Amino acid sequence: MTDAPDVTDATGRPGTHAARIDAAVARLTTAAATGTPCAPVREFLGGTDIDAAYEVQRRLAEARTAAGARVVGAKIGLTAPAVQQQFGVFQPDFGVLFDDLTFAHTEPVPLRRFLQPRAEGEIAFVLGRDLDRPGANVADVLRATEFVLPAIEIVDSRIADWDLSITDTVADNASSGAVVLGTTPYPLTGRDLSRVGMTLRRDGEPVSFGAGHACLGSPVVAVAWLARELVRRERPLRAGDVVMSGALGPMVPVTGPGRFRLELDGLGEVEAAIEEETK
């Protein structure tokens, strides 16, 4: 598979909008298939054309579902100021959550599936109702949420050295890798998620701290933002979807096998068991 079409403009980039989309899809597909990080796709998309980047994401998601993966929800990225500062990208984005990206508490997660993994602590929402109204607000999210779970996201990037603009991470499915979900559901009744404290430990040592207010003010606000965006793009959230609401604090590198344990005040714990090989 070639990295870009032959048709180019005076800058050397593919010359048409469609050709640029094709080139970005090809580059990210090759990186995922070979396990070799690639150059940024903003070379094709520019650094600000978010709609073009979401079209790349949509094309890659369709290829995954055609290959047998099942969509089980969505994920929000770039919500915490600490993470935004890490990458110099100061607006949230979203990606698609697939069944083969989803693991349970202590279930072995194979390290070999990642290129450049990092871990972060989050709260996952499980919906009991559709969120398909234009202009969805926090009350809609609260009514639609059946329960929440503690969750660890293993973010990953096909872009070499995490050299990202907003279009790079959007096109790359919001830098998705895997999610690990807790197994004890917690209702939202009477809970202020903005005040939930977070500690993420690696092999027993604390490596990241955060709180719910770091996630766009509250994870509920983040999910409301996502609901509006997905309705606008005609991809609304449905009952049964799992929504990863975004990081509560800084992400940390996954440098090898180990155990990451997330502790959330009042919302339990979850452990991600990252293993070199799985049986």
From TrEMBL:
Gene3D superfamilies recorded: Fumarylacetoacetase-like, C-terminal domain
Stretches assigned to the Fumarylacetoacetase-like C-terminal domain: 92-274
Keywords: Lyase
One Pfam family per UniProt: FAA_hydrolase
PANTHER family: 2-KETO-4-PENTENOATE HYDRATASE, ACID HYDRATASE
Name of this protein: 2-keto-4-pentenoate hydratase
Organism name: Streptomyces celluloflavus
